[in-house]
Amino acid sequence: MQRNMTLFKAIRAAATVGVVAAAAAMLAPAASATVTSIGIEPSVTLGAHRYGTTCTYNVSVTVDDDTKRVYFFEEGQGPSGFADAMPSGGVAKTTWTPSRPGITYIYAVQPDAWPETRQVVDVGTGIDLGSACVAV
């Protein structure tokens, strides 16, 4: 009788451990690629705004997964965006020409990642002078 009770307790303990492990596995978040930061390299921009339409800027993002492409888009463009790039060494780079004046956001995202990373930008009407931009 004592032996059966000990065996029963051992089986019940093993079953409990199995149920807890299965629940933990189901509740754990899925691993996904993530853009961890986004930056727009400064250029010589004169005027009331930091960025100007018709002028081009370098955008770089850091990621935690080099195997998934990064998609870049401006607020209102949707997921087709203005560029996509494959990261290397944890960084993906592209160029961006603002599509319209106003305060907007530049987004960067990798597939199956949430949330996307964004950077606020203040865009004016630009005049590209080649080595500088006038943003009014």
Could you write a compact summary of the structure shown?
With 136 residues, the chain is α+β, with helices and mostly antiparallel strands.
Total domains: 2
Termini separation: 90 Å
Mean pLDDT: 81
Given helix and strand content, the structural type is alpha+beta
The number of E-state strands comes to 11
The name CATH uses for the topology of the largest domain is Immunoglobulin-like
Biggest beta-sheet profile: 5 strands, mixed
Silhouette:
elongated
Oligomer: single chain
Q: Architecture of the largest domain, CATH level 2? A: Sandwich
Count of separate DSSP helical elements: 1
Protein model, in words:
With 136 residues, the protein is of the alpha+beta class. The protein has two domains: 1-30; 35-135, Sandwich (Immunoglobulin-like), CATH 2.60.40.10. It is 19% helix and 40% strand. It is built from one helix and eleven strands; from the N terminus they run H-E-E-E-E-E-E-E-E-E-E-E. It has one helix at 2-27; strands at residues 35-40, 45-47, 51-52, 57-63, 70-74, 83-85, 91-96, 102-109, 117-124, 126-128, 133-135. The strands form three sheets. It has a five-stranded mixed beta sheet, with no helix packed on it. Strands 1-4-7 form a three-stranded antiparallel beta sheet, with no helix packed on it. The protein has a three-stranded mixed beta sheet with strand order 2-11-10, with no helix packed on it. Strand 8 and strand 9 form a beta hairpin. It is elongated. Keywords: Signal. Residues 1-33 form the signal peptide.
